[in-house]
Amino acid sequence: MQIDKKQIATFNKNLLVEHKENLTSLSKKHKNIEQVIDTISNYNIAIPSWALGAGGTRFGKFGFGGEPSNLEQKLEDIGVINTLTKSANAVSLHIPWDIPKDAEAIKAKAKSLGIQFDAMNSNTFQDQEGQEHSYKFGSLCHTDKKVRDQAVAHNKQVIDYGVALGSKSLTIWLADGSNFPGQLNFRRAFENTLSSLKEIYAHLPSDWKLFIEYKPYEPNFYSMVIQDWGTSHMLAKDLGEQAYTLVDLGHHLPNTNIEHIVATLMTRGMLGGFHFNDSKYGDDDLSVGVIKPYQLFLIFNELVFGMENNSSNNPIPAWMIDASHNLKDPLEDLIQSIEAIETAYAKALLIDQEALESAQLNNDVVEAQRILQDAFNTDVKTILAEARLRNDGAIDPILAFRNLEVRNELIKERGLKSTATGL
Ligand code: LRH
Ligand code: MN
Ligand code: MN
User: Fold this and answer.
1) Does the Cβ of 228 fall within 6 Å of ligand 1?
2) Which residues form the Xylose isomerase-like TIM barrel domain (predicted)?
3) How far apart are CA 211 and CA 29, in angstroms?
4) Residues near 241 by Cβ (< 8 Å), separated by ≥ 6?
């Protein structure tokens, strides 16, 4: 299924007059509105290949119908999201869930849809069919060198798949850790992980980046080898200039000050990428912005400041969604996540940085809070809509998705029972 420009233009027609009125009144209130629209209209977030079908919990899964049953169809679904939002021009692939069997064909398909290949993700947290050694007791950290070698070889292969597709980065997330005190020697596990990572790093093309994701618990509930940003940072530093820390919003203990972590990593030029999602309890992988939109805004405040005051040469972080959903239509859910990310970004761009700096220098706590909250309380829906409109996207992408009956079309095309690989 593909949506064409004309369908979107027809859809936009009914909303256009009201939208333009809103834009005029917003422009009167904010002096840098053009700049914000411009930044948002050039902003893109990678879609995870594992989130295009119905997500499940370990207790069950409920299908939607019309799910993509191969990588080509997944790219088509991202094409739909991108046509509507004009903010999702890349895919992040998880191997082996989405092996590009014919790289040239996949590349051509992606190109025809205007989709690029963002970070590749390896998977040594599940045993794969035909695999010689089990990851039951870890992968890159394993006590047995043969298991570590197998996990290293897998990561190298993922890099090779990525090279064939034109990707420029690898994200490594390890489930490695222990469930019981005494099970694992922490220091040996760390050293094994580091030496395995060094082998993978040596295979990295010179224009690639390696992102190291951390997580405090799950699936291991006593210890995780890469439990926090400090551990990830240490490993990245030991590897070299192409290695960075990746922050997944769900990978923190409750109430962690994530914006502070973001600022600290950027001070050292070490923030490589982001996995956006939201959570109430742990790694809930809920749609972005549903639980803590203010936290997301404060994170973007640090990101905006970090990108504008970049003496540490932090690269522009790789932006990715990492959310899963067992109730919503996966495409609608991803559109909602994109809107939430852009909402937080646009609001952060509205912060009067000069006024904030002066309030901070004068220790005027009340004024600093007012500046942040003024920006946070601004309705930026119109900014997002205008950014999309200028790229021929939909003024209201969810409404367009529903008016164009995308899910029904997909069900007609692929059937009610098709299922996608992923979480
Ligand atoms: C682990 C994680 C990691 C995986 C993805 C499927 O919780 O966030 O990024 O690759 O989920
Ligand atoms: Mn993640
Ligand atoms: Mn996660």
Assistant:
1) no
2) 100-285
3) 40
4) none
CB distance 322 to ligand 1 below 6 Å = yes
Q: Report whether residue 421 contacts ligand 1, using a CB cutoff of 6 Å.
A: no
The Cα 395–Cα 384 span in angstroms is 8
Tokens of 360: 């901070």
Q: Which residues of the chain have pLDDT under 50?
A: none
Give the closest residue (by CA) to ligand 1 atom 2: 173
**DSSP track, 100-133:** -SSHHHHHHHHHHTT-EEEEEE---SSPPTT-SS
Type of residue numbered 391: N
Q: What pLDDT sits at residue 54? A: 83
CA distances from 18 to 27, 36, 308, 411 (A): 14, 20, 34, 33
CA distance 53 to 369: 41
Q: What is the pLDDT of residue 328?
A: 94
Find tokens 């040594």 and name the residue: 124
Give me the pLDDT at residue 375, please: 97
Q: What is the pLDDT of residue 64?
A: 84
pLDDT at 417: 82
- What is the pTM for the complete model shown? 0.97
Alpha helices in 268-417 (DSSP H): 293-308, 330-349, 353-361, 365-376, 381-390, 397-403, 406-414
Q: Give residue 149 CA to ligand 2 midpoint distance, Å.
A: 24
Ligand 1, atom 6, residue with closest C-alpha: 423
For 278, what's the count of Cα atoms within 13 Å in the CB-facing half-sphere?
Answer: 22
Identify which of 322, 325, 423 to mutate to test ligand 1's pocket (most ligand atoms within 8 A of the CB). 322
Q: What is the pLDDT of residue 262?
A: 98
Instruction: Report pLDDT for 87.
Output: 98
Segment holding 55, helix H or strand E: none
The closest-lying atom of ligand 1 relative to the alpha carbon of residue 248 is 8
Instruction: Please tell me whether the peptide bond between 330 and the residue prior to it is cis, using omega within 30 degrees of 0.
Output: no
Check if the beta carbon of residue 231 is closer than 8 Å to that of residue 206: no
Give residue-wise pLDDT tens across range 264-309: 999 999 999 999 999 999 999 999 999 999 999 999 999 999 999 9
- Residue 142 tokens, joined: 């394993």
CA 81 to CA 91: how far, in whole Å?
11
Q: What value of ipTM does the predicted structure carry?
A: 0.99
